Amino acid sequence: MRWLSAEAAWRSLPPAVANAPASQIPATAxxxxxxxxxxxxSPLADRVAAQLRLARGGVKISPNEISWDDGKVVMVFPLDGxxxxxxxxxxxxxxxxxxxxxxxxxxxxxxxxxxxxxxxxNYGGRRLQFKDHPQIINFTNYGFDNQASSxxxxxxADIYVYDGYDPYASSSIWIEFPHSQxxxxxxxxxxxxxxxxxx
Length: 199
What we know:
This protein is an alpha+beta fold. Helix content is 14%, strand content 27%.
């Protein structure tokens, strides 16, 4: 399998796909958008457009990356024909490529901590990565509710993941210890994560 950087992948796409204006993306999410966004069978441009409809406020920063919250939250999509998303582009990782990444997730890097969640087992499918997010995060805000199947904690905090939007009203379904990873969450917790917080 040949790996490309996100920038090289962008340059390899036809201009019509790489430069599609946001105005061509319908404003309203459809019932089918969650299925399209998560399907590796759908073309990359369709997956990204569906995700932008699901989670408003995102900005397409490369053909396979969407950013929210001034780059603190990024979703990376696998390229067409691939099952695993590339490592983040240099635009995502503080202007420079991370010297280390675990399954595409940046590790603790220049004081930044990264927490990544994957739509599929074995670190496949869409990757939703968070940088320095100590507050409570709801996956719904990013169109990723009940989607997580594997994860990487590339930072130094404990991550408590919940099946609910209020962590104070429910117990965690799993805990991610610093610098740890799981290729598949326990069967009873797969596709159940709704929120998390770093402690």
